[in-house]
Amino acid sequence: MEKLPTEGGIARILANPSPDSASDVPEIVLQVVDLKPIGNSSTRYTFMASDGKMKVKAMLPTHFASEINSGNLQNLGLIRVLDYTLNSIPNQTEKALIVTKCEVVASSFDSEIKSEVKKEAEMENEAIKVNKEEAAPSIVLKPKQETVVKSAMQIVKEERGNAAPAARLSMTRRVHPLVSLNPYQGNWTIKVRVTNKGNLRTYRNAKGEGHVFNVELTDEDGTQIQATMFNEAAKKFYPKFELGKVYYISKGSLRIANKQFKTVQNDYEMTLNENALVEEAEGEVFIPETKYNFVKIDQLGSYVNSRELIDVIGIVQNVSSTLSIRRKSDNETIPKRDITIADDSNKTVVVSLWNDLATNIGQELLDMVDTSPVVAIKSLKVGEFQGVSLSTVSKSVVQINPDLPEALKLRTWYDSEGKGASMASIGSDMVSPNAKNGARSMYSDRVFLSHITSDPSLGHDKPEFFSINAYISLIKGDQTMWYRACKTCNKKVSEATDSGYWCESCGKSDDQCSLRYIMILKVSDPTGEAWLSVFNEQAEKIIRCSADELERIKNEEGDDQYQMKLKEAMWVPHLFRVSVTQNEYMGEKRQRITVRSQALVDPATESKYLLEEIAKLSV
Amino acid sequence: MDTSSPTVFVNGELLKLYMGRRVRTVVQVIRNEGGAVVGQSTDNQQLTVKGPNQSVPVMNFMEVIGVADGPQSIRAEICTDFGSNFDTASYNGLCKLANGQFKNLFL
User: Fold this and answer.
1) Which residue in A5, A14, A158, A397 has the fewest CB atoms around it within 10 Å?
2) Tens digit of pLDDT for each residue in A561-597?
3) Where in the sequence is the signal peptide annotated (chain B) (predicted)?
4) Within a domain: residue B35?
5) Is pLDDT above 70 for A281?
6) What is the structure's pLDDT at A173?
7) pLDDT attached to residue A472
8) pLDDT for the residue A153
9) What is the CATH number of the domain that holds B47?
10) A607 vs B90: CB contact, 8 Å cut-off?
11) Which of A607, A613, A616 has the most B C-beta neighbours within 10 Å, making it the best mutation to test the interface with B?
């Protein structure tokens, strides 16, 4: 059964004004619009018959009045015309459709049906029009009719209510994933949750005073983008955006993100001006899972003082009481709480919670510390206080006992081993990388040579430190092995005109100078090879004689003995603590690896380390 | 290299699994009893080593390569003095791995 007016139905009727018999009448379904009684009659009704495109004045048969009175057929309902005649109205160009036989197809409809796809605005207007049109009859109609109209209005409202989401989806509310946005496509709508809301800040620049605030938005896929609003837009949207709520946003503009200021991983950032559309999404269920990228505690060393924020997950072992720290810059006191967490890398670290996190989450953790809860924290800054320390920032998120597979893994590890294990703080490993117990620290941040050589951008900002275990594979005998150094300050001396050596920094000349090693060695490990710069202290241990001595051998005992000495140093495995930096040389960026400390490989300790690493492989 | 009869790395625990097979292990010499040497394996079990070349001093470590002829006894073919500086924990770890998940690397 058709539930829509027949397309071109009116045209057909107009074409065939007087069908011979009912059988000649094709199936025509029309919508009853503008239904009203003629005068005071309760039996004669007039309406506009609509097929979606055209309308014609029409009249219902008197015997059909009962259908209207009973409410079976209401305004905006559908009828199937079974028999009719088309009369010409005297003095009018219009025709009148006299429906002689018909049946109800649909008693009512949400609105007048038109054949084009409507925009919501139009539909709304339509609905308003319809309502208004309905309102008119309700005033004119007799009380009996009022009940009919009221129920029609009710039904229309209901139907409208039901149709609304469908209507909304059918318009430009096609939600685009955040990852597809770019500055060259303007017509988008996104559905996002506010995962971070900044404060409304006031600034002063050459143009005067301004307001700015930004929000971090996350969509269903987990993609994030930062949106900024200035002045009027800032004031307009600041109260509108609420942390945690979901919004439909459109008509924002995109541009490439300023890497210096960006806090989220996105090449673009969004700006919303007063023309932007922000609409709260009702009852939204999607909660983009906080995407974590956990770093094991024993790997934190390489992030120290990096700008990158990291995530951790661990078992809470200890919660301190709240401390009040006074901020030097503005004398403001901020609450702080330190918690100690441990993970299955068998290391512990201290996390400092600031402000709200200290007071609220901190208190919660203190209350439940006996249960050794799992805590997952996103966006922590890695500092070097006491070796390694973690600190929350304004956008940090703390979850207690989260529903993540890592949390479960930690729980089982802790219950079986962790609880009893005595774990060292990762900080103590880092405190003195050049400590007397040099061998101990050779095991933190252990990497293979390929890790260093394969990444040319390592150390471009600040030097990065690693430990390596490598064999000396080549010492070139024909390189500059040493420099002449001042006996007092070890700085390079230049040959003075009147024999002797002149030290620039000491400001004096000396007959004697010492030789200090400065050389490059080639080292190899199972993953590759690299050139290391080595200075006096370490070179002496490698070659096993001082630079002065080596020079003496070279000059007095001959080149063979000299080469022999170098050969003896080769193919000996050493543990090195190295720093990697990037510098420019002749316009090209070069990686420079410098040895900071050296130790011979102790087979027992190294074996222990290897066994640990092998065990990690199989997990 | 003669790979016809591969020698298995064993400790006290694993010795009984390779009865009649060629094995190698390191023990710390505890005492000399006539023709046999009693040694402590890397997992603290007492093993008896029968055979020649028993010149390893007490308290030193000795590597034994021979045939396992009892759950705690080896008929030694070669004995080597490994000195007094030996890390039993690492060797024990080696035995476990060589017979466990990395068996195919060794046999």
Assistant:
1) A158
2) 899 999 999 999 999 999 998 888 888 888 889 998 8
3) none
4) yes
5) yes
6) 61
7) 93
8) 56
9) 2.40.50.140
10) yes
11) A607
- Which residue range(s) make up the domain with B58? 8-88
What pLDDT score does A619 carry?
Answer: 62
Residue A246 to residue A242: CA distance in whole angstroms: 8
- List Cα–Cα distances, A571 to A182, A472, A524, A594, in angstroms: 55, 5, 9, 19
Distance CA A220, CA A193 (A): 8
Interatomic CA distance for residues A69 and A291, integer angstroms:
62
Beta carbons of A409 and A420 less than 8 angstroms apart: no
CA–CA gap between residue A309 and residue A383 (Å, rounded): 11
Flag whether pLDDT at B73 surpasses 80: yes
Confidence of residue A45 (pLDDT cuts 50, 70, 90): confident
As given in the structure block, the two tokens for residue A410 are: 């930690």
Is B99 part of a structural domain of the chain? Answer: no
Contact list in A for residue B89 (CB cut-off 8 A) is 604, 607-608
Number of structural domains, chain B? 1
Contacts of B87 in chain A (CB under 8 A): 603-604, 607-608
CA-based nearest distance B101→chain A, Å: 9
CB pairs under 8 A between A and B: 18
Give domain status of residue B106, yes or no: no
Shortest Cα distance, chain B CAs vs residue A602, angstroms: 11
pLDDT score at A528: 92
Neighbours of A131 (CB within 10 A): 15
* Contact residues, chain B to chain A, C-beta under 8 Å: 87, 89-90, 93-94, 97, 101
**Can you tell me whether residue A168 is helix, strand or coil?**
helix
Lowest mean pLDDT among A76-90, A105-119, A240-254, A522-536: A105-119
Q: Is this prediction's pTM over 0.90?
A: no
Q: Which residues of B touch A618 (CB under 8 A)?
A: 101
Average pLDDT of span A295-309:
79
**Closest by alpha carbon to A544, among A615, A472, A461?**
A472
d(C-alpha B36, C-alpha B39), whole Å = 10
The two counts, helices (H) then strands (E), for chain A are 15, 29
Q: Residue A464: what pLDDT? A: 86
- The SS3 call for residue A597 is strand
Give pLDDT, residue A126: 47
Distance from CA of A616 to the nearest CA of B (A): 13
Which residues of A lie closer than 8 Å to B, measured between beta carbons? 603-604, 607-608, 611, 614, 618
Subunit contact B90:A603, Cβ cutoff 8 A? yes
Q: For residue A461, give the amino acid letter.
A: D
Q: Flag if A603 and B87 touch (Cβ within 8 Å).
A: yes
Residues of A in contact with B101 (CB under 8 A): 618
Which two structure tokens, joined as six digits, stand for B37?
């040497």
* B72, part of any domain: yes
Q: How far is A175 from chain B (nearest CA, A)?
A: 51
Residue type, A503: C
The stretches of A45-112 forming alpha helices (DSSP H) are 65-70
**Nearest chain B CA: its distance from A472 CA (Å):** 25
CA distance B90 to chain A (A): 6
Chain length of chain B: 107
Share of chain A residues as helix, strand and coil, in percent rounded to the nearest 5: 30, 35, 35
pLDDT(A137) > 70: no
Four-CA torsion B18, B20, B25, B29, nearest 10 degrees: 130
**Pairing of the two strands A268-272 and A224-230:** parallel
Q: Hey, of A614, A616, A617, which one would you mutate to test binding to chain B, going by the most B CBs within 10 A of its CB?
A: A614
Tokens of A228: 């900024």
- Terminal-residue alpha carbon distance, chain A: 65
